[in-house]
Amino acid sequence: MDATVSSVIVLIVAFFTFCSSQFDMSDCLKNKACIFISEGCEVKGNCEKIVSYTTEPDRWVVIELFYNTTHPDTNYAAVGFSEDVLMGDEAVTHCGFSETNQAGVFLSQNDGKSNVPLNLTAEHVAKYVELLEATHTSNSIYCKFRQKITPDETAQKVVVPNLNRTYYLLLAYGTASKYEVMDTHSLDTHSKDFPFLLSAPVNVAMWEKVPEAPVKPPSNRILMVVGWMWLIPSAISAARYLREHWPDKKPFGLKIWFHIHRATNYLAIIAVCIGVLSVFFGKQWRWTGPAINKTSERNLSPGAIHSMIGAVSVGVLLIQPVGALLRCDVASRYRVLFNWSHRFLGFLSFLLAQTAIILSVIFFHVWMVRWAAILLYVVYLILIPLLIFHIKKINSLKEHRNASVSYAGRNYHQEQIVITKTKHDVKTNRLTVLVVLAFSAVVALITTVMAALMLATV
């Protein structure tokens, strides 16, 4: 009888412990900020990932992690505090469960794609993070802990994060052989077990200023894509293929091709500069590219290389309008130096920017459907040699026609030869304009769809 009563008491205690250690949505936006990864899942009751945070008067922040539909052997849940949208070089706090379901909370750091525990004793760790509640079932994992908002300088030197800053939150879970140390999580980007990156940075120490679903429109990325993929190619194609068109029409004393070239370039520079400033503003004016104090793995990561190549391409781009303003007269003997340097720097900045875009398409989690972004960009790259090929084909037909007319001109008056050449030139010129316009239109369409793929991730 006593054994039966004891068993019932144990079951009742276990039941209430289990229920109390689940995520409580009723406090969301009342006493804590809640982020539901799937839109509307809190109403449907099918949320797979939830994170919440709130501050306490003693300068600690309470964080909750709830991951649903996990594998039975999942035994850790983690949150990373990243300064950029890539994994690497950020502080991590994770809850781990031992084989006997004993729970603990631990501090570590991502070094590239590896995770390394901080060089702190258990007593020191307890000064900065404390486990409050934790539950581990066959298909879910819940963890509630509190962490000091502003650790001392000694702790910050070993990468205990200052939580009174803006971070991108990286949410991950997985299986670890030792619950104190995180093992590698899923590396399949299409798997639901792959780490999730919140699209907007948050400050967990200021939850009352964060909306229920923080959204930061990816305007910086969209402006970059519009500038480098549409406006700059349009400017280059106008300067390269439309110089001989409309020779008698000179609005404001300048040929039409020059107006197109200058206007699209200036629009591109404005778009790119706004994009760069918004990137630095979003990262609190911190440089996230290669640096002396970072590991070689971090400096050679796709994000670091993207930052460096992008910075160089923007720097070269800004030289172009300055050089154009200081260019010498057309009749000057140094004009040829300006022409070649202007072309070289223009193509250099364009090629560097395309390299940076390739890295973002392949490695960055900023696309709703990554394979669609890759496919669109491949089509975009194919369009460039197609444009060059068709223009060369048109020019070769033009040269062949002119040679035939000159040969036939032995039996005709010179006036008739000139008229025949002019008619053919008009046709080929129109065809060239149509090809350039078609190229710009298709590129604009590709750019629009890629921008939509970015917006869809918000």
Descriptive key words:
48% helix; Immunoglobulin-like; alpha+beta; Four Helix Bundle (Hemerythrin (Met), subunit A); 458 residues; six-stranded antiparallel β-sheet
Describe the protein's topology.
Elements: H1 2-20, E1 33-36, H2 41-44, E2 49-56, E3 60-68, E4 76-82, E5 91-97, E6 103-111, E7 114-117, H3 122-126, E8 129-136, E9 140-148, H4 153-157, E10 168-174, E11 196-197, H5 219-241, H6 256-282, H7 296-299, H8 302-325, H9 335-363, H10 370-408, H11 414-455
Antiparallel strand pairs: 1-2, 2-3, 3-9, 4-5, 4-10, 5-6, 6-7, 8-9, 10-11
Helix pairs in contact: 5-6, 5-9, 5-11, 6-8, 8-9, 10-11
What are the segments in which pLDDT stays under 50 over at least 5 consecutive residues?
A: 5-21, 209-216, 403-421
Rg result: 30 Å
- Count of distinct structural domains: 2
Shape: elongated
Arithmetic mean pLDDT: 79
Summing up helix and strand content along with how strands pair, one would put the structural category as alpha+beta
CATH class of the largest domain: Mainly Alpha
Beta strand count: 11
Q: Identify the CATH architecture of the largest domain.
A: Up-down Bundle
- The portion of residues assigned to helices is 40-55%
Question: What share of residues are in beta strands?
Answer: 15-25%
Number of helices: 11
Do you know the CATH topology of the largest domain? Four Helix Bundle (Hemerythrin (Met), subunit A)
Query: What's the arrangement of strands in the largest beta sheet?
Result: 7-6-5-4-10-11
What gap, in angstroms, lies between the N and C termini? Answer: 59 Å
